[in-house]
């Protein structure tokens, strides 16, 4: 045993023991542990295998930058790969499994890659797996995917819930360490709405790892005092377990709260994670600093970790990382680690300082090697001693763990996520946050400060500064004195020469110093190129630990300052965010709204099969017992409407009430046909064009009163037409006196269709609906028997005598029931959108199949609806363009197969007989097709070059997709009642 | 993740409530304007980078068309006004 | 003939909640809802007229546009009142069947709504009496604060089932119950 739990101390609750397992081994930890601290307490140094070389790896950090200790947590569908053990909160029953090893963590076949490593350098994949090309998909990629990589996602659906939420505050404080706590306290006392978020499950940040005295108390006591005051303010929200991962436009922050990730069986009434969008007037980035590893031979051996991590395990979790610990440092952090270890009675093997002269003191009896460097770490699965070189002499040091410190990098990600570049400070030997304005201020060690006292004071100062920028003032809280601080200064030491083993820069991606050199030699010298070529700084940790070292090393190779090299672009997310959190509740049925017609219940009752049409669920057809397949039902519905009477739900049409003295003028300008003289009580079919002369949408518009119109749109374009009308009224013609509002949802609208429609209708409607009293295109508010008021329109999409009856939506079902009841003696039957479509194809009416964004009114046979007399309307001017008036434009025609058994399919192309299929020979295409029960054979609508001149011509219907080719006759698109006599009967 | 637009009628709202139409400087030509003018109005669009006026529609809010003047690279928003007011000013 | 009026959420609500939880979603059974559109230049006069109507709540849906909502005044009666008082000032459209009014209440109701919409509901930013047109659970909605811990949402009928289920999903954390308003 080398790593072990101390008999006392730390912030874990020793009275609450937690059982967990790692690779099947049952282990114990305490409440307050992370998985990492519990593993160390059980001397489990080896926790994973590296990405490429499958080298044994251990825990390097105590926080979210951890590159090595990635494990799978959970069982079955709840398995989550690539979880950092250093931030995973321990819970009873936690099941953890190591990754990227086979057959076991200890005996991993993949580690043979280490022997092949001379061939596995940077750019290896690009150079090796080039040819033959066919091998890529079948051989190379599967091989690489198996050999390299992190954890595996499970294939089962995630059983847990996720949520998304918005939050608003005056001040967001990111990080609850010394600077963050004081910033939050300062603003909270001034009455501001404060959110204090921290990724840790216990607020306090680095204070929880320190042994200083703050105002005479332990740091954890100091933290509790502040937190309890903050918790007493109703305007303060404390958010532990919440990582602020991104800074977005307008000072909105993205954060993910781990609500139930520390619970074995999460409650289904709560999300496991909640994604927050936090709108903050001001924010303070008190995110702390990351300790840099040193780059030396064997720096990835399990048992080597950063000095700060070693101190955190020791002071916060009561876990010593070894029994005889060596320290390798270039600054004060290593000395403090040695002092902390010594204070707990842990043997310190030696402190090796890369600097020729140290500026700090060690407790008596600890050996100091100045100007030395570790060149090799002995052992395989754990540290078994060191080889240290100083002035050309080598020395073996006996130890079972090594703490390293290569200096500190402020955590500046958030400030750099919107394009601003960090700048290099020679003084701090670090990249510092750029000035991004008053909305986001770095504070404490995130702004390059060191020392707890300095951070406490800076937290206050930055809060005051944020308040001042909101024209608010506050009183400074008293900042207590801090005793026992250490000198955290350090000297640059980017790379330790003389390495006898690989010296890793990026642990997670197995990038070592030689890879960086190769990238420079092969022309990938720019830091962004180096990243892509070597993979340094990629994957889940995005180079949190290694990037600054990589920059320092490349700078050293080129003999320039790190300022000239820079760093790669910082992008959200700071730490990985699960897809579940980003989806929130928008999964499956919840991913988009469903819209239901007011007649949905009626349709369901009548046995409808529903079809999704945009967001709507529309009744498609109404099968009856004994009918085989949808066609049989649809044929019956169509024939019944043509011979008796049918009822169809058309409630989904867009409906807009238009008012104003200029309402008629407005409609006249947005439709291609004339509306000024539409009489009150009349409906008119209208065509809207786009400004380029192409048809936009169609529908009927009724004049209900002199200055009150009722516009209908197609179901698909309801929202678009409303938006278009608003643009026209507000932007194009703001001086017109016109206003409108959608009433789409107010009305249940049903189409009563067929020769017996009037008979049925008259039984329900009080008013006279005879042909004389209520002729074709009449519109009126009517009263239903019993007193219900309704709107009645005599319009037809089917070519039959037809009415559309609109009643307030809540009465829709009852009125539809009444119509069905009244129609029973007349053999009424319900029909759906399939039959609706067949009826309109037989009549040659167009829909968006024909109004497909390429056709003009003339193309679809509606040339007479283009008013040449109106001075101006949308689309008029460009309709006269050459091209839109060409003689060989595609025009709407009908098609009948010569062999009546042949079924025409929409999408098929049209060719002259004998012509080879080609773009040049293409004559047009089929837009709509169906079996016509009225004619007894398949028919189609098509767009054909100069089509109206070609009625009677035989043309080839060519459908390569379905392997069909046969001859059809071109005919008028109106297959039934060409003189429209039925409409007026 | 988020952008906010400060609607002059509704206040600060996320971009998801809006839809963008594009260049707000276009003025619809008169019916008698030249083919070239109409062609430019309907078909020709610059693709500038930087400060730019766009029409945004507050589709989930007041349903007003707005002129949003912003830097389309940094998304810094300089002003948001009701488009009808701007249109009246142009026509006056 | 007497026609039965059906509320669109009848299929989703099993009945009147005998005992509602502190967090409750009440669905108004037969509210009266009108869209009112002011004539240009008469916005202020129109607003004044609406403000003086008895038994109604006036919600902003845009500049010069309002939703007038009432639980007490019948549709026909409000239609007449608006007709009489609106001449020359505004036009009114009955939306009572086209809109669904949902009333959310409870001490943590803001936390539930924060999962549904992006408006800042702090009492300083959105006091009692405030209203806003906004997006709620992917749908267009009108939100109003009717009391410290009570909000009303007006949504289109065809979206109502979806929004209703979404809100209950967001309310699971607080064991939110739902039922038709007893009032």
From TrEMBL, chain A:
The keyword Oxidoreductase applies. Keywords: Oxidoreductase. One of its GO terms (biological process) is tetrahydrofolate metabolic process. Belongs to the GcvT family. Residues 599-870 form the GCVT N-terminal domain. Pfam families: FAD_oxidored (PF12831), Fer2_4 (PF13510), GCV_T (PF01571), GCV_T_C (PF08669), SO_alpha_A3 (PF17806). PANTHER family: AMINOMETHYLTRANSFERASE, AMINOMETHYLTRANSFERASE, MITOCHONDRIAL. Residues 501-584 form the SoxA A3 domain. InterPro entries: 2Fe-2S-bd_N (IPR042204), FAD/NAD-bd_sf (IPR036188), GcvT/YgfZ/DmdA (IPR028896), GcvT/YgfZ_C (IPR029043), GcvT_C (IPR013977), GCVT_N (IPR006222), Sarcosine_oxidase_asu (IPR006277), SoxA_A3 (IPR041117). This is Sarcosine oxidase subunit alpha.
TrEMBL record, chain B:
Signal peptide: none annotated. GO terms for molecular function: sarcosine oxidase activity. InterPro entries: SoxD, SoxD_sf. It comes from the Bacteria. GO terms for biological process: tetrahydrofolate metabolic process. This is Sarcosine oxidase subunit delta. It comes from Metarhizobium album.
Automatic annotation (TrEMBL), chain C:
It comes from the Bacteria. InterPro entries: SoxG, TrmE/GcvT-like. This is Sarcosine oxidase subunit gamma. The lineage of its organism: Bacteria, Pseudomonadati, Pseudomonadota, Alphaproteobacteria, Hyphomicrobiales.
